[in-house]
Amino acid sequence: MISIIVGNKGHGKTKKLISMVDEAVKTSLGNVVVIEKMPNLGSNITTKARLVNTDAYDIKSVNGFYGFLAGVCAGNYDVTHIFVDATLKIIGRDYDELVMLLKRIDLLSKESDADFILTISEDKENLPAEIFDICTLVD
């Protein structure tokens, strides 16, 4: 399953994500992973979740990011949740590539049985409608 938290800067996406991470850690029987572009969530995320900074792995493309996500799932079958903060900062603002990535993550989610929750810094109305066929919108 893929869920997305959408809204412009200052909309409270990261705060909502942190709340969802805290809840996932309490209920998960496996591992919770939080992925961010730059290290800024450290003091807000419980140490029971694995925090990963994509800059440390030199991820510069949608394919590279997908490979990274697939590696996280393949390397640990106990991952139950993968949270991604600032998705468009990681992959860029190409919405066609975003749709392609979400389709691939949807398949990965089904194969790995992990839930993916991503923040997207954009107004809902500006995103392709196809995204909402793939993802569940978090209010």
Helix-strand blueprint:
Layout: E1 2-6, H1 13-27, E2 31-36, E3 50-53, H2 62-75, E4 79-84, H3 87-91, H4 95-112, E5 115-120, H5 131-134, E6 136-137
Q: Which residues form runs of ≥5 with pLDDT under 50?
A: none
The dominant shape is globular
User: What is the name of the CATH architecture?
Assistant: 3-Layer(aba) Sandwich
By secondary-structure content and strand pairing, the structural class works out as: alpha/beta
Total of DSSP H or I helical runs spanning 4+ residues: 5
**Mean pLDDT level:** 94
For this entry, what is the oligomeric state of its chains?
single chain
Radius of gyration: 14 Å
Query: In CATH, what is the class?
Result: Alpha Beta
Distance between the termini: 16 Å
How many DSSP E strands? 6
Strand content: 15-25%
Fourth-tier CATH superfamily name: P-loop containing nucleotide triphosphate hydrolases
Q: How are helices and strands ordered from N to C?
A: EHEEHEHHEHE
In order across it, which strands form the biggest sheet? 3-2-4-5-1-6
